[in-house]
């Protein structure tokens, strides 16, 4: 009896950071002795893990690892074949800066792309919600019933004993759910900081972490928390400024409103709107600030800030509107006939209206032919479909939501016929070569993220798929240094760098074709969306061939990535899609990526907050609000992502939203003075 008691006490007592054999984790690391490049698994004292692009954060008695939310991650070696037949526990100290949906903190990624949560892991099932994911026969997405504040250290533990999934925060049970069954025999590794290539990287800090091949008890969890809590400081509660504006918002998947601190001109403090009078030229350029005039738009970095330079040499920021077009739904066509009769009338009135709200440009998906024909045109952009059109010509195109889809989810970029197709496609732009109003050309829209495994799963007996397959095989052979590739050994870094290789190959080909026909105009990239712009290798390679990196930017209340992208791309950034939807519009708002806010006024507050962030960065040369007109729920021909949402500055009958436009005008009018304010 006495020996049993002693054994039990030893199983709960920590000695020098290690445990008795009965409770020893299979993985245990902290960063107290790390050099920032590697970290040792203390459970076996021999497995060394590589830290990819992380930085150490010193605490009073230990160190933590900072994850940047873009690329920092660790593959935990020897975790491909963990024995989870008796259950699993993941215990970690973490201080998240952001909690984006489906971001894995510690866990194993799911190879099934239709389920973006982990096969097993500690992750964020929703924004600002911590949870456990399990790919059991009855899928488990367990959420903790607790508020987690950004920057605050917490001790998070998730357990599963093949019967019940549980999650604990700071030693207290915060959620449980029945979960009976076994995990499939996936052999992918556990990752810290990410579970999926180039998508949803963790942003925040990570401290001492343990993984067990069983479900630990509540007593053990409390003992762990008690023995380590002194290492991780309590968060200081910082009061919001007295003039802070709080806007309620939610994402499509969220049921509850959340509050976001929001900057507007009204609560800027020492910046006074209207103080600086700005004179504009015909293009909307700032006449008081001039550089070399070339007769066309170009970019230039001046005193640390990127600018577009207009044809007359004036500094220019592209304050644009996307999808400026009549529309093809029955309601919009009927309203158009009543209000305008002719397209020329519509173009003149629309451009007049946009100028009245201090917009100065036309973005993607617009009727730029009618708008350019006006006697008072605006700077405009055009978009090609190099990859999407080529895929269609090869029979490799498929319908997808929001962008083009491809056979095997792999754009056929390595086809030997692609360069010649691009040269022919670019010839259609030759008519624009002398047009000073053309800002530049987008080559495609939201090319899907290339995935190495999907390229390797293509059919090599199909002559149209074989070039992509061969390119992936040859690249992996060189990468692994072997003549026979090992698909099971593919790492997250392999995925990231292969995706960048695909984009570099594409950008090199299309930029050459576009520049051949339009040597005086800018190549504006391919409008990267979230899976791609989160991969810094892609952004870096795109910067080598494009004058501007174009980003369709959703999911962030504040545009906090501009400086990062500009630094790695060495090119300016243009935000080519962003928006919010108003719950007061009468539309269901079930489609699209943008935020939902209560009213049109809050849409305007979001716009001001976002623009202030863009201008503060010094790397942004413009933005395009998405979009001119609301979706029409009755339009069955629309893209599935554009069916029923309040995205426009106008209703489907061309009626404006005055509260939104009033706030848009306020900040659009101050764009140039704000650059001086931030630069000073």
What does this 3D model show about the protein?
With 680 residues, this protein is of the alpha+beta class. It folds into 3 domains: 22-231, Jelly Rolls; 247-378 and 553-680, Glycosidases (TIM Barrel, Alpha-Beta Barrel); 385-437 and 448-521, no CATH class. Helix content is 25%, strand content 24%. The strands form 9 sheets. Strands 1, 4, 5, 7, 12, 13, 14 and 16 form an 8-stranded antiparallel beta sheet that branches. Strands 6-15-8-9-10-11 form a 6-stranded antiparallel beta sheet, with no helix packed on it. A hairpin with an 8-residue loop joins strand 17 (245-249) and strand 18 (258-262). Helix 7 packs parallel to helix 10, helix 10 (492-517) packs parallel to helix 12 and helix 14 (600-617) packs parallel to helix 15 (658-668). The radius of gyration is 27 Å and the shape is globular. The model is unreliable at 1-22 (pLDDT under 50).
Q: Keyphrases for this structure?
A:
single chain; 680 residues; alpha+beta; Jelly Rolls; TIM Barrel; eight-stranded antiparallel sheet; six-stranded antiparallel sheet; 16 helices; 25% helix; disordered N terminus
Largest sheet: 8 strands, antiparallel
Proportion in helices: 25-40%
The fourth-level CATH homologous superfamily of the largest domain is: Glycosidases
CATH topology annotation of the largest domain: TIM Barrel
Total beta-strand segments: 34
Range of strand content:
15-25%
Q: Unreliable runs, pLDDT <50, ≥5 residues?
A: 1-22
- When the domains are counted, the total is 3
Q: Structural class per helix/strand content?
A: alpha+beta
CATH architecture of the largest domain: Alpha-Beta Barrel
Shape: globular
CATH class of the largest domain: Alpha Beta
Radius of gyration: 27 Å
Compute the number of helices.
16
Distance between the termini: 75 Å
- The average pLDDT is 92
């Amino acid at each position: 009896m006495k020996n049993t008691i002693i054994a039990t006490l030893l199983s709960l007592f920590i000695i020098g950071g290690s445990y008795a054999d009965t409770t020893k984790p299979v993985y245990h690391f902290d960063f107290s002795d790390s050099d920032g490049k590697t970290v040792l698994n203390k459970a076996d004292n021999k497995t060394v893990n590589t830290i990819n692009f992380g930085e150490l954060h010193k605490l009073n008695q230990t160190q933590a690892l900072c994850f940047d939310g873009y690329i920092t991650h660790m593959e935990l070696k020897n975790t491909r074949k963990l024995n989870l037949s008796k259950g699993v526990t993941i215990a970690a100290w973490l201080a998240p800066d952001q909690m984006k949906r489906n971001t894995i903190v510690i866990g194993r990624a799911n190879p099934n792309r239709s389920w973006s949560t982990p096969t097993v892991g500690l992750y964020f099932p929703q924004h600002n919600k911590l949870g456990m994911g399990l790919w059991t026969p009855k899928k488990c997405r367990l959420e903790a019933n607790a508020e987690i504040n950004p920057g605050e250290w917490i001790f998070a533990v998730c357990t599963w004993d093949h019967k019940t999934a549980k999650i604990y925060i700071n030693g207290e049970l915060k959620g449980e759910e029945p979960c009976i069954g076994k995990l499939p025999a996936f052999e992918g590794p556990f990752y810290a900081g990410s579970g999926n290539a180039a998508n949803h990287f963790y942003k925040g800090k990570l401290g001492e972490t343990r993984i067990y091949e069983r479900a630990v008890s509540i007593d053990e969890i409390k003992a762990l928390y008690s023995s380590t809590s002194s290492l991780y400081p309590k968060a200081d509660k910082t009061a919001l400024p007295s003039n802070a504006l709080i806007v309620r918002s939610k994402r499509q998947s969220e049921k509850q409103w959340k509050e976001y601190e929001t900057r507007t001109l009204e609560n800027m403090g020492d910046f006074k709107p209207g103080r600086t009078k700005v004179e504009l030229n015909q293009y909307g350029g700032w006449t008081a600030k001039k550089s070399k005039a070339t007769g066309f738009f170009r970019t230039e970095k001046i005193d640390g800030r990127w600018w577009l330079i207009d044809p007359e040499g004036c500094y220019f920021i592209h304050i644009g509107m996307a999808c400026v077009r009549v529309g093809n739904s029955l309601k919009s066509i009927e309203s158009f006939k009543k209000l305008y009769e002719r397209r020329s009338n519509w173009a003149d009135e629309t451009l007049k209206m946009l100028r009245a709200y201090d917009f100065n440009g036309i973005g993607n998906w617009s009727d730029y032919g009618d708008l350019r024909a006006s006697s008072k045109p605006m700077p405009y952009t055009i978009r090609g479909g190099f990859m999407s059109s080529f895929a269609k010509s090869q029979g490799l195109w498929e319908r997808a939501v929001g962008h083009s889809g491809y056979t095997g989810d792999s754009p056929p970029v390595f086809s030997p016929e692609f360069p010649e197709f691009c040269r022919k496609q670019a010839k259609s732009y030759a008519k624009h070569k002398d047009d000073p109003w053309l800002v530049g050309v987008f080559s495609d829209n939201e090319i899907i993220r290339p995935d190495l495994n999907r390229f390797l799963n293509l059919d090599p007996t199909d002559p149209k798929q074989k070039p992509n397959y061969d390119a992936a095989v040859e690249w992996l052979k060189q990468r692994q240094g072997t003549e026979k590739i090992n698909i099971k050994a593919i790492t997250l870094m392999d995925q990231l760098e292969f995706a960048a290789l695909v984009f570099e190959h594409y950008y090199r080909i299309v930029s050459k074709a576009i520049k051949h026909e339009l040597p005086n105009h800018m190549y504006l990239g391919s409008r990267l969306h979230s899976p791609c712009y989160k991969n810094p290798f892609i952004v870096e390679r795109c910067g080598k061939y494009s004058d501007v990196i174009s980003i369709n930017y959703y999911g962030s209340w504040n545009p906090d990535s501009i400086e990062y992208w500009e630094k790695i791309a060495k090119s300016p950034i243009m935000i080519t899609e962003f928006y919010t939807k108003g719950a007061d519009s009468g539309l269901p708002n079930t489609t699209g990526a943008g935020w939902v806010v209560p009213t049109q006024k809050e849409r305007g507050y979001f716009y001001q907050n976002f623009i202030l962030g863009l201008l503060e960065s010094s790397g942004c040369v413009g933005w395009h609000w998405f979009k001119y007109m609301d979706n029409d729920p009755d339009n069955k021909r629309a893209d599935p992502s554009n069916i029923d949402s309040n995205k426009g500055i106008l209703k489907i009958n061309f009626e404006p939203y005055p509260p939104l436009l009033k706030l848009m005008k306020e900040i659009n009018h101050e764009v140039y003075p704000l650059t001086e304010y931030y630069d000073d």
